[in-house]
Each structure stands twice: as C-alpha cells, then as structure tokens.
TrEMBL record, chains A, B:
Annotated stretches, region: Disordered: 32-52
Enzyme class: oxidoreductase
Region forming the signal peptide: none
Sequence ranges assigned to domain FAD-binding PCMH-type in this UniProt record: 116-295
Organism: Lachnellula occidentalis
Protein name, UniProt field: D-lactate dehydrogenase (cytochrome)
Entries under InterPro entries matching the protein: FAD-bd_oxidored_4_C (IPR004113), FAD-bd_PCMH (IPR016166), FAD-bd_PCMH-like_sf (IPR036318), FAD-bd_PCMH_sub1 (IPR016167), FAD-bd_PCMH_sub2 (IPR016169), FAD-linked_Oxase-like_C (IPR016164), FAD-oxidored/transferase_4 (IPR051264), Oxid_FAD_bind_N (IPR006094)
Keywords: FAD, Flavoprotein, Oxidoreductase
Catalytic activity: (R)-lactate + 2 Fe(III)-[cytochrome c] = 2 Fe(II)-[cytochrome c] + pyruvate + 2 H(+)
GO cellular component: mitochondrion
Cofactor(s) it depends on: FAD
One annotated GO molecular function: FAD binding
Family: Belongs to the FAD-binding oxidoreductase/transferase type 4 family.
Length: 548, 548
C-alpha cells in the first residue's frame, strides 16, 4: 500500500511553467481561404499546414466511383437571377456562374481537413427563415441540389459539395432570439457561433451544454445537425435531451415550426429529433431552442498516471462513485499520445514519472471548497488503493488550461509529421483500449511503423472521452499510404462491428463514413432510415451523395 | 430583514409525528379487477373508490361520436385458433371470443382512472420479441386493430381499447437482460416493472433515471412509449436523452433492432426517438436500453412557506444557483392544495404558520455533509432576503417521506369528494400560477364553487413540478358536472395556446387529449406527424382512435 507521504507528494500542486499546446480559438470573423490554411477538427485544435486550396484534390477525383446524378439540373443564369432578386443584398450571394468568383467561392468548396473539395459555383446566404424557405422550394421545384453549411468545421466532409451543389451558408442568420433567465431556455438563429452563445450565457451565469474545440467557428445549427458530442456530454448529456425545439425548412419550403421552449411537451411525435444528427439531409435547421444549465463557480482539474487499462477502468468507476454529480470530464490519453505531444511541443510534462496511461478529470460544481475536498479525498483514495500511481491538481485557471493542453493538444501534435488516419469510435468500455493495442500490433507486424522516414507510420495512439466510451484511434503518418489504409480498413470497422460499437461516435457519417454504416447498423435500420429520407426529401436534393 | 434568531427558529429540524398521505406502492403482482377497485395516476398515488367495473361507462357510450372503423375485421374463432397455436401457453392468451371470459378480461378493458372502458374479447401476452412480431404481422395482414398495453397506469386512456381492439399485454416480457456496472447501461424487456428495475439497480448502487407514483405497476416499455416525466426529470433529464436504444416491432412484423448500449452513436437518423412518446401508435416497444446514473448517498428534503408566487420564482432561481448540481426536485403546492390534504388526512402540518404557497426541495448528492451545508446556507440566505417565510428540513428517511407526502398526497386527497378534473400543463414559468388564479376566479364567479353540497366544485388547486415548468391544475368536485366542464374548456386550452404552452406536459395525448392537440401544435406539425403515422402504420391498426 502506498505510504501517506507518497500520497501527499503525489498530490502536490502542479507547477508547470511553460504552456503546452494551448487551446487555440479561431477568431469569430468569417474564415477566408489562405495560402497557409488552417485546419481544425471538432476534437479541439487548429493546425497549420501549407499549400493553397489548389493543392486539395477534388472529391470527384479522390472518389471517382461517385458520379454526379444527372437528375439534378445544372445551374443557369436564370436560376442566379432568381436568387439575386430573392436575397436582394450583394453580400447574400456569391455568384460564380455568371462571372469568375473562384477565390471567393473556394472557402465554401473545401473543408477544414483539406480532404474534400467540391465544384460549386453558387453560394447563397439567406438572412431569414422565409428566405431559406423560398430558396429550398425553388431548388426543389427545379431539381437543384443543395448543401447546407454552418461553420464548416466537420470532420467527415458533410458540409461541402461534391459536385456543383448550391451551398446554402447560414452565417447571416446569426441573432440570439431570446433567453429566459429563470428556465434557462435559449433561442438562437442556426448561424449563431457556439462561442458567441456561450459568451452571452456566461454574462447570465449560464453555460451552453455543449463545448468543443471548433467553438470559435462552428454554428449551433451545425452542432445540432451533426449531433455534436464534445467535452460536456458526460455532465450535461446529449443534444437529444437538451434541445427543446427546432425550426427547420423542409425541401419543399415547408417551415417546421417546432421551436418550443418547454422542457416537457407530450403532444405527438418528437419530430425535431430526426433533425438532430440528420446532417442536413432532411432540411435546413434555421432556429434552435436549447436548455442551458446554471454555470458552475468552481472548476477543478486533476491529471494522473496509471499502470494499466484495468486501473483506468477502476479509476473511472471510483470517480463516478465518489465525484458523482460534480464529475464533468474523464478523459483518457495513452503514453504514446503524450510522448508525441511532448516531442512536438517540448513542454515539461505535468508528472515527473512516466506511465502507460494518463487520465484527466474535471469537476465543476457550485462550491469550490466542497469540490476540492471531494477531489482530494478521491485522489488520496485511488492512490492508497494503488489504482493511480501519481497525480497533480491544477491550481488556478492557467494550470487548468495547461493540463487540458495535454489532452486537447493531441490531434494538433499528431498532424506534425504529415497526416493522421482518424477513427472516432464508440466501444464497450471494458474493451475500449484493446483496439489500440491490436491495431498497433498489426501495423507494427506489417513493418509500416518505425522511427525512420522509410516507415509511413509514426505511431498508433488512443485517447478520448472515456466517460462516454468514446475512443479516438489515431494513426500518425509521415505520408498517406495505401498500405496503411489497407492494414486499417476494414480491420477497424470489423473489430467495431463484432462488439456492437459505433463506427462514428460523434463525428457523423458525411461522405467519409457513408459506406461503412453497415458495420454499425443493420439492413433493417438502414432501410427504415431511407424511408424517412424519401418521405422528407423525395427528390433527394438535400446534401446528396452522403449520409445513408 | 429577518433576524438571525428567526432564521434559526425556522430552520429547526422537522418534528412531524404522524405520517401524512404516505406514498403507497402497489404490489408487484398482476393487478386484478376488484369490486373495490384502486385507481392510480402517474403523479403518485393510489386511491380507493367503490363500485365494480360494471359501473364504468363504456368509452363508446361516453364518446358517441367515435365510431368503430369498419375497415377493421371482427375477431373470429379462426383468428383465436391462430393465436393459441402461436403463443402456445394457456397463460399467454385470454380468450373471450370462443367462451365467456368477461371477468378475466375486464382488467384489460378498463383504465385505472375508471374513465375509459373498451369491449375487447381477446388479450394476448406474447413472451418474446419474435412472438410480438408474429402477432403484429398477422393482425396487419388481417386488418385486426391492436392496443399495446404495459402496466395500464396512464391518465389519458391510451392503453385500453375503445371497441374490440386486441390487447397485446407485455407483462410476460419481464426479464432484465443485462447491466453494465461501468457504463451504467441497463437493458430490459419492455414489460419489466419500473420498481423492479430500480430495486435491481439499487443493489448495484445505481438509480433508474425516472421515478413516478405508479412505479409499482407501470412497465418500462410503457414509460418510454408515453415519454413519462415524473420526479427525477429536473435532475436526470428526459427519456429522449437517457434512452440509449429501443427494440420495437412495427405493424408489419419488422423488428427494429435499435437496442444499442452506446452513449454516442452518430450513424444515421435517431429513429428510436419517434417511439419515445409515440404512445404505441407506430409499433410495440419490446426492449429498452437506458443509461442509469450512480445512486446518490445523501438525500435532503426541505419544505417551506412563501408569501407570493413572485417569491416562489425568486426561491427557484436561488435554488438553481446555490444548489445547482445537487438540486433534484423543486415542487410547488398552493395553500388550497395543502388545506385539502390536511382536511382529508387530519395530519399535523410541517409548518406552524400558514402561507399562500409552499415549496418542497430535494437535494441528492454524494456527500451528506456538503449537501447539508449547501442546503442550510441556501435556506438561511432565502430567509434573510425574506424570499422564504418559514421552513423545515427533514431529518432522516421517515421525515423525508412525511414531507414528500404533503406533495405526493395531493392527487389522492383531491379525489376524496368524488372526482377531479385534471390538467397537466407546461407553461412559461413566470405565468404558471396565473392560470390557477384565473380559473379559480372564473369558477367562483360562475357560482359553482362553495362549501356546501349544492356546489359541484370543492376547490381549484395548483401544484406541480415547478422545476420543469409543469403545472397540475386540478379542480376537485363533488360530482362531475357539465357546467364545470363548460367553464373549464376550452378556457384552459385557449389560455395555454396563447402562451405557447403545452396542453399535455407529461401525460400524453391518448384518447383524452387527442382533440386538443391543435392548441399546442400547428397544422403543419400535425400534418408532418400524420405522415409518420402513415409511413409506419399504413393500415392504421396500431392503437386507433387516439393520439394525433
């Protein structure tokens, strides 16, 4: 059993002087395509890469099997004329049909990961629900395909066109409509940026029940359309529970006015749920009403090292039991991920000793003293039981950010060598890490992993939202390589399917996962989903070539 | 400002010797129709009434405008033969078609409130999902109408037939399938009784995220089908957020295998959500997977008196702010409701003084000392600010139950004089109590309210889940009277519609509210809901004459 003095030593306050990968927040202004572009993912970081948009391959070239559906009309000057008259303002339309507007349009054609690039020549920015309704009705009547677009920060290519689909960008619908300080119900336009809403709520001592790395650019409408998970799910639950109402426009122009602010309303089918995670394939979300909890006064963060995945599971159970209502995050990072972060940043590690696993836990509550006491008691307990080997607790906001940096910095640092194969998976918690070990072994045995440049793979790492059974399996590579891809797929998907896991826990399907849904859903479920798609969008104009 | 000594006085420990309306739990055994029947509602109580089932009017007589749809086949001996062969066991079928089985069948024809009574002659109790599938396929092929039935404890007539629909009772599917102690995912058959599941979870130090008065008899499948709200919603959120997966059988026999145990799964439309609150009109839920939180060690209950509804709102805001993560209930009771409870039970009131409003707050957390400190600090604060006039805190489990009795005993006590008109409403919180005042004034002015037997109305009372903006407006009557009904409707519904409230917060639509959905939903929404109904149940065999 660990001695008391060792416990005390381990519970020393963190003294981290340098700031590891801190969490960058993109400025709120509209993203413009740059020659040194910045990519971002919803797990939390922006990374610098080089090269202009010209170097991104068109999706139509990367996926030659996907053919433009000839049922869709080509955009004509007459169509553009209609939209210009409808939307009125110069700023509401980017017209690459009647003139050359390539540079202005490119940011709307390409995604943040620089993996997907479409051929659209028309971007519409409606300013009201009525305008969205008229746009969609016209597109539906004229068989014009449409891609709804929020902050364009997704990871699966869901928010950019594949061919010449019209982009309907929601950035001009960016008003906070109302907030009820007693009930906590917030009503916003779909184009309100997550960080703007959270900042507004902070002033009212409330919190948006969702947080993710792309908060500086992602739209709430997009968050809802993709059923974003993020960092606060463990505490506040999913959007299926928090969203109170949705206003959406269906392909035929019908405005679905389900924007209630009531916590309880048992009058008929809860249709709005289909739009949460519907990824813009049934219609366009124009407004969202959401329940926002009281903001916690006290935030504590602890970071600790553990000797095995079995101990990680034990620590999670103890944290759930002892920290219960104040536990707001339980994040897992393996040694490999922390080694790479250290290599890239050169920062001093939070713990002096090294361990196969690290966990970050966050508590948030209304009473700082109580929370400190609970957290320290928990840490003492797990140290005494030798579940946890070493740990630190952050003192002050700066150290909180520093410790989070070791978790949130992972995706950024992994990209350092050239590229990353990313999988976002739900796995029964007892087997969660086994996939990382098996994948690493497989890649190692294939001779693809090594320290030198003739090996494409730098390392196979695992991290993620342990509290939600959500693993991010990442393979950091020096270069994208068909041999690596072949070693990974369908291996990873088959592994997941055998365990009834999900091949997309929080990123969605988009274009990237469309073909793999069968690993997580039965034929019956897929058939039932297609029924719904056909019911709402019989012409198939909404976000074609993607999703189911 | 209140003096310190007054605060201390008010914060005395409750010394309640007698037990007011305590919370009766119906035995778990299958309910049998009795000459002295017991009725129960989902708000929390059972009440004794007299008279046999024979005295309940048939729904077809109460609502002569509802006609049996001739498209449905009449049940023949051949049908019965098929079902007997399919289900095999004697106990799986109650056949009133080929023989007289009236007494055995009546419990399945009548509802708990003794308001609705059908004419079915056939009750089926399938024992597996496959059997449910074969039953529904046969019914669909033969145009036989079906009513799915769980614990039959609903309040809107949703779970009993109107005419001769076949009752598919789920009581034989009553197995707990699995529980994952790390993730908290519980998987059960639809027919598992809520209290059985919660008892099972208690042993595992977990809690079912839903609690309601009918827990001793209601089925989890029924809870999910009606999107039950209940007492834990403020803390644990709605079933739309907590249900992880559903297995359901569609009318054509298709088994929808969406019984995942994952907290996150973004692979396609979340179809299971349509079945949460679908009230058995799209199919029959056969299995449920649900996220169950860690059980709290410490439960505290406080009961206090306030001088106005404005102060109730202030108290709620302070409770949300100061008790935050440990607040698990904030219940409102007006003076009228407490007077009636006192009259019926003769119990000693928790507070010595009388007040226009009373609130009950419950906290649940992992640390008893911390919670006590937070609660006492909160009470001191609201007393000093003169938001709260007087208050007590329960000491020990018995006093917790006693204080809850003054809230949970209301529905039972209101029935004492003969009957109750009940409305279950969602209203923006600032106007919530105004409806009670206006209704009371209206009834009073009409000369219907008074202390003597020539007045039908005993009193108009308001109580409910303040934390969820959910008001129960109840009118206690000596006898059901058309004049009272005329004074109440459509007045109440129009009042709700003007404020974008819900005419059914947690009870659902069933038969009782079917005709009033237009007060809470637009024509567009109703049309979209009907599309879904037609998609899943084109023959309309599932729970006809009800819902939308």
């Amino acid at each position: 059993m660990a001695s008391r003095s060792r416990v005390s030593l381990a519970l020393r306050r963190a003294r981290i002087s340098s700031i590891p990968c801190s969490r960058p927040i993109r400025p709120l202004s509209q993203f413009r395509w740059q020659s040194t572009a910045s990519t971002e993912d919803s797990e939390g970081v922006a990374k610098g890469t080089t090269g202009s948009s010209k170097t991104i391959k068109f999706t139509s070239e990367t996926y030659p099997d996907i053919k433009r559906d000839p049922k869709f009309a080509e955009i004509t000057e007459d169509h553009v004329k209609f939209f210009k008259k409808l939307l009125g303002k110069e700023s509401a339309i980017i017209d690459g049909v009647t003139k050359d507007a390539t540079d202005d349009i490119e940011p709307f054609n390409g995604d943040w990961m620089r993996k997907y690039r479409g051929h659209t020549k028309l971007v519409l920015k409606p300013g009201s629900t009525e305008e969205v309704s008229k746009v969609l009705k016209y597109c539906n009547d004229n068989m014009l395909a449409v891609v709804p677009q929020g902050g364009n920060s997704g990871l699966v290519g869901g928010s950019v066109p594949v061919f010449d689909e019209i982009v309907v960008n929601m950035s001009r619908m960016n008003q906070i409509r109302s907030f009820d300080e007693v009930s906590g119900a917030l009503v916003v336009d779909a184009g309100v940026i997550l960080e703007v809403a959270d900042g507004f709520l902070q002033e009212k001592n409330h919190i948006f029940p969702l947080d993710l790395g792309a908060k500086g650019s992602c739209h709430i409408g997009g968050n809802v359309a993709t059923n974003a998970g993020g960092l606060r799910l463990l505490r506040y639950g999913s959007l299926h529970g928090n969203v109170l109402g949705i206003e959406a426009v269906l392909p035929d122009g019908t405005i679905m006015d389900d924007l209630g602010q009531l916590r309880k309303n048992n009058t008929g089918y809860d249709l709005k749920q289909l739009f949460i995670g519907g990824e813009g394939t049934l219609g366009i979300i124009t407004g969202v009403s959401i329940m926002c909890p009281q903001r916690s006064n006290a935030i504590n963060v602890a970071f600790f090292g553990l000797e095995s995945y079995e101990k990680v599971q034990l620590a999670f159970r103890e944290a759930k039991g002892q920290l219960s209502e104040i536990l707001s995050a339980f994040e897992l990072m393996d040694a490999q991920s922390q080694d790479l972060v250290q290599k890239v940043t050169g920062n001093k590690r939070p713990l002096e000793s090294e361990h196969p696993f690290y966990c970050l836990i966050e508590t948030s509550g209304s009473n700082s003293e109580h929370d400190n006491e609970k957290l320290e008691k928990f840490l003492e307990d797990v140290m005494e039981k030798e579940i946890v080997s070493d740990g630190v607790v952050a003192q002050g906001q700066t150290q909180v950010k520093e410790l989070w940096g070791w978790r949130e910095g992972i995706p950024e640092c992994l990209g350092h060598w050239g590229g990353v194969y990313k999988y976002d998976l739900s796995i029964p918690i007892n087997e969660l890490y086994a996939l990382v070990e098996e994948t690493r072994e497989k890649i190692h045995n294939s001779g693809l992993l090594g320290d030198t440049d003739d090996h494409p793979v730098v390392d196979v790492v695992g991290y993620g939202h342990m509290g939600d059974s959500n693993l991010h399996l990442n393979v950091a590579v020096r270069t994208y390589d068909k041999r690596v891809e072949k070693a990974l797929e369908p291996f990873v998907y088959e592994w997941i399917a055998k365990r009834d896991g999900s091949i997309s826990a929080e990123h969605g399907l988009g274009l990237a996962k469309k073909n793999y849904i069968g690993y997580s859903r039965s034929d019956t479920m897929i058939k039932l989903m297609k029924q719904i798609k056909n019911l709402y969008d019989p012409n198939g104009i909404m976000n074609p070539y993607k999703y189911i």
